[in-house]
Amino acid sequence: MTATTHATGTGSRHTEREIAQQPALWREVVEHAAATRAATEAFLRPLLDQPDLRIVLTGAGTSAFVGEVLAPALARRLGSGVQAVASTDLVADPRGAFADDRPTLLVSFARSGDSPESLAATRLADQLLTRCHHLVVTCNPQGRLHRTHAGAERSLTVLMPPAADDQGFAMTSSFTCMLLAALLLLDRADPDPALGRRLGDAGQRALAVLDPLVRQRAEARPGRVFYLGSGPLTGLARESALKLLELTAGRVVAYHDSPLGFRHGPKAALDQDTLALVYVSSDPHTRRYDLDVVRELHAAVGPERVVAISTSGDGLSPGAWVLEGLEGLDDAASAPVLVLAAQLLGLRASLVHGLAPDDPFPSGEVNRVVQGVTIHPLPGADGA
């Protein structure tokens, strides 16, 4: 990728750089996780060893989708229940999110840490729960979320590399770095020192392979795009659809679902102007369902309008986007590389539609850090 600028606004300089830098940042995230393992284990291990611990992964927008990717993967790795609850849902219905008072680890993801819901979610958890600990994974040391929890007795804050604090409108580096960091932090196994190099190398190859393929798809100007994925890849499909919606300022309608859920109504939105992208799972059982929907889409809109994205070519027809170097990794660990396809498609589609990806909403109707949210006190909590 090479940086370009666009005449209608701040261009694409930040967004292009922040997509391209991710492989190097993943190496840094893994190295830092290994170097700080003793300190993070001292905080997290006693919590993870509690049999009745509830883990809630939260954040707003893209930060919420970090949790949606991680929740099923961490449930497998930890052998216990893990919930992904967006902070936007948690703040609106805190008693629904915390229906019972039991030991809880609230894991908060935030690029800036200044979204109104970010800090409100942690305060509500403390109001409603007698035994709540906080793991804050963020990119901004000056954000209110980090400043509030840094050094607090029941909190551990983990900062991403400075370059992961994206300056472009859409979250790219921040999403993949927070996802990878949390996967390492909450895994009982020690980080594989080779993982950072492996993901970095796979990411570099993927960027080179994907960019010309994505440009071709963007230049075809599809009117609507479906992203489908199962398990952890359902959350990735949701993030992928949001990237396209954000960076094209809604000019391209983007949908997300799971392959099985897609048939229960959303399939009605298919037409001959649709591009469908399916993240195909590496799990052998799940993969069978993903391949079924790829074949069904081929019949519905034609193979030329369907792209399967996978870490393996097994069972896939020619034209699939196979990202090499990820064999043996589960879907959550591969997700940072897989999502490069969606980030690039959002970027290129934005430029094709004459927008500036760094600021697709120059009039300010949608903001990089959400504004206009009033946080209302919760009646009956701490005397409110």
Brief summary of the model shown:
The chain contains 15 helices and ten strands. The chain is α/β, with parallel strands linked by helices.
Mean pLDDT over the residues: 93
Shape: globular
Through-space gap between termini? 53 Å
Q: What's the CATH architecture name of the largest domain? A: 3-Layer(aba) Sandwich
Please write the CATH class name of the largest domain: Alpha Beta
**How much helical structure, as a percent, in the residues?**
40-55%
Can you give a write-up of this model?
The protein has about 375 residues and is α/β, with parallel strands linked by helices. The protein has two domains: about 35-185, Rossmann fold, CATH 3.40.50; about 195-350, Rossmann fold (3-Layer(aba) Sandwich), CATH 3.40.50. About 45% of the residues lie in helices and about 15% in strands. The strands form two sheets. The chain has a five-stranded parallel beta sheet with strand order 2-1-3-4-5, sandwiched between helices. It has a five-stranded parallel beta sheet with strand order 7-6-8-9-10, with helices on both faces. α8 (about 145-150) links the parallel β4 (about 130-140) and β5. α4 (about 60-80) runs parallel beside α9 (about 175-185). The chain is globular and about 55 Å long. The termini are far apart. About 50% of the residues are buried.
